Amino acid sequence: MKRALILLITLLSLLIAACGTAASGSTKNETAPSGPESGTSAGSAAESAASVTESAASVTEPAASVTESADSAASAVPDENTAAASASDITISDVDAGLSVVLTEIMDQVHPGEAGSSLKSAQAAADALDFALGTDLDAEMIAAMTYAYYDSLHESAKDEFPEQLQLLDETLETLRTAEGESLLTDAGISDSSYPWTDEAFERAEAIAQACSN
């Protein structure tokens, strides 16, 4: 009887130990994530990281485009030294056709000291101002072209041309004043663009003063 009791106790101890081991294994299985689920989480994290990288790249690309546009615009702005060099390289073949007409009129019609020279100078000055009002050339380029025209003349014409331009300059000064309208009337000029702008006077004066230096 005693031996049977000991055997029963031993069997109960083994049974309890077996149940404890099974419970521990079940807890470990529930805590550890399964293989496929762990792989899915890692894949989602990688996709999120890639999305962030693409967003950063899309922000960087417009910034780079703006920088390139700014660089292109800066390179398109002409340098002042380049513009000055271009003006100094002007030859008679580069002279604007409209300006050439005005200069030829001055050379042929404006003769200081002759009868009616002031009235003829008024006509030439009005034509010079009308040209200056309608051209896109700036004063510097007009002066350069005028000098190129002068430089192409024969020696005899070169001697008189600066004096003709001086008379033109004096006439332009008169046309700036209140006496200008009266001068135009006396010269019979009714089809001009009077009154002219300050910019037109500046350009016309560039013609008159091109050979003064």
Question: How does this model look, in words?
Answer:
This protein is mostly helical and 213 residues long. It has two domains: 39-77; 82-208, no CATH class. The protein is 77% helix and 0% strand. The chain is built from nine helices and no strands. It is rod-shaped and about 155 Å long.
What does the secondary structure layout of this molecule look like, with pairings?
Layout: H1 2-31, H2 35-76, H3 80-88, H4 97-109, H5 117-134, H6 139-151, H7 155-176, H8 180-186, H9 198-208
Helix pairs in contact: 4-5, 5-7, 5-9, 6-9, 7-9
Task: Please sum up the structure shown.
The chain is mainly alpha-helical and 213 residues long. The protein has nine helices and no strands.
What does the average pLDDT come to?
77
- Describe the largest sheet: none
Helix/sheet category: mainly alpha
Q: Could you say which overall geometry the principal axes of the C-alpha atoms support?
A: rod-shaped
Helix-strand topology string: HHHHHHHHH
Termini distance?
145 Å
How many domains?
A: 2
Task: Give the total of beta strands.
Answer: 0
The residue ranges in which pLDDT falls below 50 over 5 or more consecutive positions are 26-42, 62-67, 72-85
Continuous helix count: 9
Indicate the multimeric state. Answer: single chain
Strand percent estimate: under 5%
Helix content: over 70%
Query: Rg to the nearest angstrom?
Result: 48 Å
